[in-house]
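If it is no trouble, can you show me the amino acids of a protein and the tokens describing how it folds?
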Amino acid sequence: MWYGRNLVRAATSDDRAPTAVELRRSIRRMKRRFTRWSRTYEGRAVVHRIKVRRIPDWGRAHLRSIAWCESRNNPRAVSPAGYRGLYQFSFSTWRVVGGWGDPAAAPRSEQTWRAWILLSRHGSGHWPVCG
């Protein structure tokens, strides 16, 4: 019998190759596991860090100052007005820049990338006090 995430063969007495059905079943199982894992906080952080992203130095400096002003660099910050995360996104703005779920639950790297998208496409007007 074949099992596991990398199709390692279980210790059995027969030396046969896996059937097509066994391979399809194993691949479906691996996809389900990856999908469940990639929706966790740790999974989202790893998947987001793997993607190649480049923010110029001036953009990083600007985003650092915005993050300090908005949330004191706290990625889990929630304001009384309902803004959430490191850059105090509203849910609608978070969705506009491609985020899903709660901005405060997203990894710091994803929040920074979404803020960069917002800053580069729409300017700093979304942060009227800090931008």
About this structure: Strands lie at 2-3, 8-9. The radius of gyration is 21 Å. The helical segments are 20-38, 41-50, 57-71, 91-96, 108-122. The first strand starts at residue 2 and ends at 3.
